[in-house]
């Protein structure tokens, strides 16, 4: 429902602004819900997720620390049925090794790992990754890049995991998580076999979040999750680059001739760029040359020649140095923004001094600017603090359950205004809050807050306006003629 427009500049006062924003008879109650509506979108981000298990808490963000690494290692070694004296000589743990390779550990934790590696018989977590481990890292990086494009925050990535809040994840939930990140069920099954070595049919929610968190942090922040690959060949690098150019002169000449046409090299370079990864795979090299209609065995030989320069991997640095003569570099003008004038704070007009013709400019600036938002606990003097806290928790639950439990957001409000007369009655308000596990006494207190005159009716359109954060434009109420 569109809210009333502000009055003219001549009659503009602070009291008129507040009275026109909400009707006077519903002013306080609806202002409380309007301030609490921010928790509809913040409910899944703030605070801890309360699990059904006693004395067990889990967070959406997870925690990546040495303790989390020890838990991952204990869960892995528990499936081997080894005595404690033989745990140090067990096979290397790929989960811990991959987390260390992500580059998200602090310097203190890296020093602790270095001290553990100094003990004879312990696993080497900082050793170079194998081919299979590198493929797994590439998989996690591609999933994180897909999730960063699809979800606005990291908490939204894990929204489909553990819907029953028991702290455990089964195979079907993991498959759903992989599908949201652009992977198939076959890939999810292989990932499941890697982490579920003891075949318990469940994965711990905290450990999975801790395992995925460094890659998601790198994808959302744009930082690299691990240090770049060290080049083994450092001597005579310029001579080796020149030798590769000489061996594949015809291939580079074909790219140079076709790049002068309508095709922009920028589109070709998009095939080899992934956030947080410093090397280029064979499939990406083939896709790059396929943009220039070059698909032959010579491309594979070109990739192998560049891999010898980077210690078995094709780095972006070597690739760009070889291809730099094929393209005309475009100037980088950078980015800029138009500076905005800073609005100086102006004292609000008082009720005793109405705005006159000489203050029309100041009144117009106030009408075009937004009033400072009221927080939920700004009403502690007039409303019970306990009721304000309960309203905040209910808004959190509504923001979570509307997205997870209803096909259409408006279905959550279907029990209101059953007679289609634009009015909510007390029984309907009780049914609405009963769907979010709240008692009738709480519903009555909210109803009395919205109906201070005791008329027994609450305007449905005004109540619906507080849920604009979860209702899409197609599901909002339309004004009838």
From TrEMBL:
Residues 337-367 are annotated as: Disordered. It comes from the Eukaryota. InterPro entries: Centrin_CML-like, EF-hand-dom_pair, EF_Hand_1_Ca_BS, EF_hand_dom. Residues 149-184, 438-473 form the EF-hand domain. It holds the Pfam family EF-hand_5. Keywords: Calcium, Repeat. One of its GO terms (molecular function) is calcium ion binding. This is Dynein heavy chain domain-containing protein 1. It comes from Cladocopium goreaui.
């Amino acid at each position: 429902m569109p809210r009333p427009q502000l009055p003219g500049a001549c009659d503009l006062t602070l009291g008129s602004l507040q009275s026109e924003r909400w009707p006077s008879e519903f002013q306080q109650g609806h202002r409380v819900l309007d301030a609490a509506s921010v928790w509809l979108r913040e409910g899944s981000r703030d605070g801890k997720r309360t699990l059904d298990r006693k004395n067990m808490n889990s967070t959406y963000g997870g925690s990546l620390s040495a303790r989390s690494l020890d838990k991952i290692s204990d869960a892995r070694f528990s499936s081997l049925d080894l005595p404690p004296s033989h745990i140090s000589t067990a096979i290397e743990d790929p989960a811990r090794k991959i987390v260390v390779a992500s580059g998200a550990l602090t310097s203190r934790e890296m020093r602790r790992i270095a001290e553990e590696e100094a003990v004879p018989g312990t696993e080497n977590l900082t050793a170079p990754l194998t081919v299979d481990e590198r493929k797994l890292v590439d998989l996690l990086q591609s999933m994180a890049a897909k999730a960063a494009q699809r979800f606005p925050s990291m908490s939204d990535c894990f929204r489909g995991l553990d819907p029953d809040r028991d702290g455990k994840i089964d195979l079907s939930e993991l498959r759903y998580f992989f599908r949201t990140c652009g992977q198939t069920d076959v890939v999810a099954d292989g990932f499941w076999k890697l982490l579920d070595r003891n075949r318990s049919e469940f994965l711990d929610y905290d450990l999975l979040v801790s395992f995925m968190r460094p890659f998601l942090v790198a994808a959302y922040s744009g930082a690299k999750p691990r240090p770049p690959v060290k080049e083994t060949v450092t001597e005579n690098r310029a001579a080796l680059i020149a030798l590769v150019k000489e061996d594949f002169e015809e291939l580079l000449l074909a790219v140079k001739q076709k790049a002068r046409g309508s095709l922009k090299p920028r589109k070709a370079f998009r095939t080899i760029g992934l956030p947080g990864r410093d090397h280029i795979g064979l499939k990406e090299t083939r896709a790059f040359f396929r943009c220039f209609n070059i698909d032959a065995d010579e491309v594979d030989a070109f990739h192998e020649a560049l891999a010898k320069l980077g210690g078995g991997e094709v780095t972006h640095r070597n690739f760009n140095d070889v291809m730099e003569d094929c393209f005309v570099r475009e100037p980088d003008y950078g980015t800029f923004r138009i500076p905005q004038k800073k609005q100086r704070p102006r004292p609000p007009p008082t009720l005793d001094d109405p705005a006159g013709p000489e203050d029309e400019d100041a009144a117009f600036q106030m009408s075009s600017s937004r009033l400072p938002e009221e927080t939920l606990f700004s009403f502690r003097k007039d409303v019970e603090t306990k009721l304000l806290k309960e309203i905040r928790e209910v808004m959190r639950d509504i923001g979570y359950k509307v997205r997870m439990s209803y096909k259409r957001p408006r279905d959550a409000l279907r029990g209101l205004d059953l007679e289609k007369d634009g009015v909510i009655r007390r029984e309907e308000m009780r049914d609405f809050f009963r769907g979010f596990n709240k008692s009738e006494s709480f519903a009555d207190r909210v109803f009395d807050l919205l109906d201070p005159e005791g008329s027994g009716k609450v305007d449905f359109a005004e109540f619906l306006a507080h849920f604009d954060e979860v209702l899409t434009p197609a599901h909002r109420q339309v004004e009838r003629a």
